[in-house]
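Methods — Computational structure assignment.
A single polypeptide chain was analysed. Its primary sequence is given first, followed by the predicted tertiary structure written as structure tokens.
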Amino acid sequence: MFTDIIDFLKHPYYKESVFSLSGYALRKFFQSCLFFVIAAAIVALLLALLDYAIVHYTHYHSIKKDLLDSDSFNEKLRQNIVNVIIIFTIAPLCEELAFRLPLIPKKEYWLLGAVIILYFSFGGKYTSLSAFQNGYRLMFFCLSILTVVALFFIIKEEKLISFINSHYFAYFYFVCITFGLIHIFNARDSFQWNIFYLYPLFVIPQMIMGVIMGYLRNTEHFIYGLLFHMLFNFISSIPFLLFFYRNSA
């Protein structure tokens, strides 16, 4: 059932495809969902055992709770149902443009991805531009964008694409792993520096998710990776939707 996915994981590749709602493409999408659920469930079980050991045999608190129950993150979701909607619409779109679009090496894809990554690196928000009311931050953001644009004009696209194609396995997994690692920032409110080396283990499910979305993006279309991302963000937001429903009833 998962032969195509496993073959791709062994030898990642890419192709530009036209979006299609064919039976083959939809079957591949749902197989990818099932593959992710099975793989993530196995990893989640192992991480639950590790987290139990951390909590019960050391003086540290739960890393899983750090990552899933960020106080500031959850508080924003509870303040406004619009924020919940953003989590499974705008947030996945931004992350897919930054991490999945550039999996097919093209200068315009890299440029758009770099701009989005810089925007959030300088404190940009999904919901507002309030972070850029700081003049210095806005100035450095603009300078960074200009530097990136200049580099893209200087760099010879053909040579860069040729290099990436020669090392596409490393390029693909570097992007997927980086996507997973950024989720460590979910724990910024209660990060435990003494065991910082364990946090990457707890974002392996996000790395797996990144790989599967990369598979859909590279073999079918960007839209399928985006739909996959939105679907699982929606599932993760169900507790907050129930929260609003219960409090509005």
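Note: The chain has twelve helices and no strands.
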